[in-house]
Amino acid sequence: MKKLTTLILVLLVVLVAVPFTSAQDNTLILGRAVDATGLDPHTQTAFASLRLLELIYEPLVTTDQDLNLIPVLATDWSFSDDGLTLTFNLREGVTFHDGSAFTAEDVIATFERILDEETASAAATNYASIESMEAPDDLTVVFTLSTPDAPIVSAMASTNAVILSSDVIASEDPALVTVGTGPFMLENWTPDDSTSLTANPDWWGEGPFVDGIEIRIIPDEASILAALRAGTIDFALLNDPLVATLLIGDDSIDLYRTPTLSYNVLQLRAAVEPLDILEVRQAISCAIDRQEVIDTAALGEGVVTGPLTMASFALPTDELFCYEKNLDMARELLATAGMEDGFTLPVIVANAEPPTASSIAQNIQSQLAEIGITVEIESLEFGTYVDRWLGGDFTAAVALNGGRIDPYTMYSRYWQVDARFQETAGYLDDTLDQLMKAGQAETDEAARYEIFAEFQQHLAETSPWIWLYSGYTYTAAQPYVTGWTPNASDALYFLSAVQVDK
Amino acid sequence: MVRYLTQRFITLIPMLIGISIMVFGAIRLVPGDFITAQLGTEAGMLSDTQRASLEAYYGLDVPPVEQYFSWMGNVLTGNLGMSIRQGRPVVDLIIDRFPATLELAIISVIIALLIGIPMGILSAIYRNSALDIFARLFAMVGLSIPNFLLGTLIIFVLSVYFGILPTSGNYVDLTEDLSLNLQQMIFPALALGTSFASSVMRMTRSSMLEVMSEDYIRTARSKGLHERIVLQRHALKNAMIPVVTLVGIEFGYLLGGAFIVEQIFAIPGIGRLLINAITQRDYALVQGVTLFIAVNFVVINLIVDFAYTLLDPRVTYDGR
Question: Which of A475, B34, B153, B299 could form a disulfide with B281 if both were Cys (CB 3.0 to 4.6 A apart)?
């Protein structure tokens, strides 16, 4: 009996003491909190899905670190003088993961699929100006447009416009069969648990330099941080500034911070009283110190932003109306509107989406109290929030809205006649509509800059929404992971350049 | 006995039908649907035709009443439907995920019993001693700290200060690697087991104290029985009845998945399966998992009722 007890004790000690050795090869182990929701690149919109799919599929063009368009499956492109014809020359020698060659036929089949209502691609509106497509030869595609559409090329720099094989489109369901041209091939996907990707040995670009990528879903970001510190993952995606900033000053982990195109905003619905009064909205804008919002809600992790977040178009914020907190002016504006006694403003906010949302709402609550506006925060589960947001069923909302590299693509859904999100935007005037239309048609860069400069100033002045700040996304890596360049569009595509040397 | 069993099973039927209706209705009353959950705000960019085509693709275009009856029809044949998110039968997903939950529950119960029962007994025997005070303090603290906080603290302390706990997000089945599996399970089980141990300890203590003041204990002592025999044979066995109830009910809860702890420690169990199913509005999966949890709970309660007969011969379920 004693011997048995001793044996069990020894066994227990051995079991617990056996050091965890990761006998992994040259595979990059990536940790993140949220998994993809599906695999069809044309219908998936969740960031979490795009981060996976952009490793497997490639679009015609993409953006580099500074958000300039760079060629991927297309080598170059040009508009005709009237802006109605767009020609792409395609890359030679590219093959799909199933070995078939990439040709113009695949590009045409892809855009036909996206535009087909049956596919139900939410991004289809971005390519609505495509009237017809033809392939003069295997490596040339000509798009004929119904209207001049300058932003369409940058809209194609999207995972929602990646090229699928025409064979798969014809005979398979792309939600189930993943055949791309990208640097990695999908081997196995266990939803909400793990994903294995192997390197594509026939990829046209240089790389990948790892044998594959293993993605592990660790639902809690604090646990991701723990796994990084314990050395069981090589690379991590983090969203919560409260977690990511714990790595500042930690020499054993490299933290990469990238400003995002998305923006935190207080959306007012000018369709609802008393927000229909211009001065009331302006007063709210003047009463909010945006830097204070960043400092309290996100530990200072972010930059104050106007309506446009991309550096190529964004005006300096001091050129925008009331970006300096001015309580006197705010009170004066309220008095002009006959609301000097203040009012109650109900604000909806999604709990934990993003993690900072509730804190933003609370800070705004305390700032607006100074001019007599009582903010009533209604915290909602994300699904419920989305439902009310889409239906325009709110007075004001704290939101984190996605950005795009082109201002037209970014706002066409809100600020023009017949825009899909007109109810959610809650405001429109002729100036905005005209500026948007001009911005779509104009192909001259300098002229477009002027159009969108006026657009920003007009939005800030009419204050239908109060733009607050852009945060950062974070990637963190072990020091032995080299060659990583984070990208403002969050793309993981460039993991193809990463090397792992444990 | 047989009659009692039959009665219990007959009462199960309306109960499960009630549960099925509640679950079916509740998840549909939650705003948003699978498409909004998939697409987020982008769902608003869909045209009516696009949305209709997606609904048809996912089989959401059938009226709810029809959906309920076809679901119930399937349930009766043991088919809980398909998860639209994962494209796999719900039954398969439950079978995949249940072992992790079961293992976690069993280890938690073992921890709770190993700590709770001896502590409770000693505490009762040496009433008001330093040991008793310590044990009661432990129980108070254990009950007051919610397990999600304890879980987070465990992760924090172990990973930051000791650099262990290397296993997050890479769950290994116990048949694959027992040692690694236990390393992954021990801390979440501790997070769950601590508060459980506290209630076991308190229940054991009070129940022991009550039994010790009974006449038959005095009789046993006056017969000159050794104190150890009195405690083991006479006191403990009788004192265990309420503890068994407690453990049974708690075990039933644990089998329903330790939602937060599974989430924090990234253990792919039933709890995490259900949380994800709810946020994604994966109706069939929510229904299937909830029904499974309900059946589990009911069955465990039944088993607990029968365990009484083993501990206390006076309890019988035979007809009078």
Answer: B34
